[in-house]
Design a protein that fits this description.
2 domains; 10-stranded parallel β-sheet; alpha/beta; single chain
Length: 344
């Protein structure tokens, strides 16, 4: 980390200082693993015991935090309204600093003569950039990335090692794609015939809008015709499958190992837990919350619904039903006992 003072960090976070503002900080650390010249934070009350023993030089705390005993190593306290949000802001600042310092073109690489890239980009070793590719300013393309023909990438986008972006896909501004993800592979389209299954050509593309983050080893299939669309602000965890012609609405978040079948439309501001399966050609209303390991087989039409189970239904009904389900062995035993008494 770059070396900064507590005073500079406090200015960034619009915070108050209790202690020495001139202390130099060059590390970010956990509060339980604090080190000199390190900075940490305290947001969860469960971690409060660590602040009394931490060796971190500075700790971000809430404005109303009152120590219950002496702080052994007397760290400088940086007081803010929301410590977790302030710490996230500090991490974002650090990440942006790293992005700004990573520039230049490694060797060996292949860049087509017809491809164009903007100012202050970083392109890592063994990257392949195809014909008519357009890459914006300040992008970071890490090693072993493949970018197919006619791909467009906006400004300030980061593509980590080993990502594969097939031809004609469009990725807009401030997008982050983590290692191993594949964008624009063929949708799962096959027509049954007497000879077996005939492949349906997948002629569309994938469009990823501004401020999307896609985790590692995700697969987003190109559309059969038209576009698979990931709207702005969407956050995808690792190991997610998005099938052809799916559309995911703005600011929706999806946890790991979920799969969305073809042509399903997911609304805005949805929250989808891990290992959720959604069948094709459905519509999921804005604000829907789907609990982990749920199976979605029908449209969800009511905005802000919360569902759970496979097949999924209203979460309140699910919880009441599950109480009964857990008691089935006990109820069965009682029925057997009653049946035996009646037969005597």
């Amino acid at each position: 980390m770059l070396s900064v003072t507590v005073q500079q960090i406090a200015q960034l976070l619009n915070a108050e200082i209790e202690g020495d503002g001139n202390v130099s900080i060059n590390k970010i650390c956990k509060i339980e693993e604090g080190v000199p010249q390190g900075i940490s934070f305290l947001a969860n009350p469960q971690y409060e015991p660590y602040i009394y023993e931490t060796k971190a030089s500075a700790v971000i705390v809430s404005k109303d935090f009152k120590p219950q005993r002496e702080l052994k190593y007397k760290p400088t306290l940086i007081r803010v309204e929301q410590p977790y949000q302030a710490f996230a802001q500090l991490l974002q600042f650090y990440q942006e600093y790293i992005k700004q310092t990573k520039k230049g073109i490694d060797q060996p690489i292949f860049i087509s003569d017809s491809a164009k890239y903007g100012e202050d980009c970083y392109i890592g070793a063994f990257v392949y950039i195809g014909k008519n590719v357009i890459i914006g300013n300040r992008c970071k393309i890490y090693p072993h990335t493949y970018i197919g023909d006619n791909v467009e990438i906006g400004d300030d986008t980061v593509i980590y090692a080993g990502v594969k972006i097939y031809n004609d896909c469009k990725i807009k501004n401030r997008v982050t794609i983590h290692a191993g993800t594949v964008i624009g592979s063929d949708g799962f389209g096959f027509a049954p015939s007497q000879q077996g299954y005939s492949k349906v050509p997948q002629l569309g593309n994938v469009i990823i809008e501004d401020d999307v983050e896609i985790g590692a080893n995700c697969t987003i299939d190109r559309a059969t015709i038209g576009s698979t669309i990931i709207r702005k602000g969407v956050k995808l965890d690792n190991l997610i499958q998005v099938a052809h012609n799916v559309e995911i609405g703005e600011n929706t978040v999806i946890a790991s190992q979920s799969g969305i079948a073809g042509s399903t439309k997911i609304g805005k501001n949805c929250m989808i837990g891990g290992q959720v399966g959604i069948i094709g050609h459905l519509k999921i209303a804005d604000g829907t919350k789907i609990a982990a390991q749920s199976g979605i087989g029908n449209n969800i039409e009511e905005p802000n619904s919360i569902v759970q189970g496979s097949p999924a239904f209203n979460v309140g009904d699910y919880k009441r039903s599950y109480v009964l389900f857990k008691k089935l062995p006990e109820l069965y035993q009682k029925i057997q006992e009653l049946t035996k008494k009646n037969n005597q």
